[in-house]
C-alpha cells in the first residue's frame, strides 16, 4: 500500500541518487546485488545480537532496491533479467531475515514457517497477476497493489527486531496480514481477468 501510494513522494530522491550512481559508472544490476548483500549482512547481524545495525542495513537495502529501478528507467536499461534478479534477490533478503529470526527466537520457528508460507502464496498471486494482467505502470510488469507491500514488510521486520521477545505473536500478525493481501490480490486479479473474458 505504501509503495503504491507513497512512492511518488520519494521518486525525486531515488532519481537523484540513481543519477549519481550512473555518473560514477554503476549499473542498475550492480546496485541490485549491493542491496541484496547489504540486506543479507543485516540479517546475519540480527543473529549476532546487532539489532540496531540489522535495522539500519535492512532499510539501506530497501532504499537501494528502489534506487536500482530508477537507474534502470533513467538509463533505458529496464530488462527482463533485471526484473528477475530484483524479485529473486528481494526474496533472498526476506528469507535471510526469517532464518535469522528463527535462529535467535527458536520458539517462534513454527510461526515463522507459516509466515514464509504466506509470503509464497502472496508472491505466487503477485507474479502470476503480473504475467497475466496488462501493464499500465512504469515497472516492467504489472504491479498489483495490496495491503502489505515491501515497505510494510520492512516496517514489520523492524518491529520484529525491536520487540524480538514477542517474535511469535508479531510473526503471526504479519502472516495474517500477508494472507489477507494474497486473498485481496487474488480477488482483484480474478475480477479483472473475468471482466476481460466477458468482453
Automatic annotation (TrEMBL):
Keyword set includes Lipid biosynthesis: no
Transmembrane segments: 21-45, 88-104, 110-133, 154-183
Alphabetical GO biological process terms: phospholipid biosynthetic process
Keywords per UniProt: Membrane, Transferase, Transmembrane, Transmembrane helix
GO molecular function terms noted in the UniProt entry: phosphotransferase activity, for other substituted phosphate groups
Pfam families to which the protein is assigned, alphabetical: CDP-OH_P_transf
GO cellular component, one term: membrane
Entry similarity comment: Belongs to the CDP-alcohol phosphatidyltransferase class-I family.
Name of the protein this chain belongs to: CDP-alcohol phosphatidyltransferase
Amino acid at each position: 500500500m505504501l509503495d503504491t501510494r507513497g512512492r511518488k513522494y520519494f521518486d525525486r530522491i531515488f532519481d537523484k541518487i540513481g543519477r549519481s550512481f550512473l555518473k560514477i559508472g554503476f549499473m542498475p544490476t550492480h546496485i541490485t546485488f549491493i542491496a541484496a548483500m547489504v540486506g543479507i549482512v543485516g540479517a546475519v547481524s540480527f543473529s549476532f545480537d546487532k539489532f540496531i545495525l540489522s535495522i539500519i542495513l535492512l532499510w539501506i537495502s530497501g532504499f537501494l532496491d528502489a534506487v536500482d529501478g530508477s537507474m534502470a528507467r533513467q538509463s533505458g536499461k529496464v530488462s527482463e533479467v533485471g526484473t528477475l534478479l530484483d524479485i529473486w534477490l528481494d526474496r533472498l533478503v526476506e528469507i535471510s531475515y526469517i532464518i535469522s529470526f528463527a535462529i535467535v527466537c527458536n520458539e517462534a520457528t513454527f510461526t515463522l514457517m507459516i509466515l514464509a508460507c504466506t509470503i509464497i502464496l502472496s508472491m505466487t498471486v503477485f507474479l502470476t497477476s503480473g504475467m497475466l494482467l496488462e501493464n499500465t505502470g512504469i515497472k516492467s510488469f504489472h504491479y498489483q497493489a495490496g495491503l502489505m507491500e515491501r515497505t510494510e514488510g520492512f516496517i514489520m521486520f523492524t518491529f520484529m527486531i525491536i520487540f524480538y521477545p514477542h517474535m511469535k505473536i508479531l510473526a503471526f500478525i504479519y502472516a495474517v496480514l500477508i494472507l489477507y493481501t494474497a486473498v485481496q490480490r487474488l480477488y482483484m486479479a480474478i475480477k479483472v481477468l473475468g471482466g476481460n473474458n466477458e468482453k
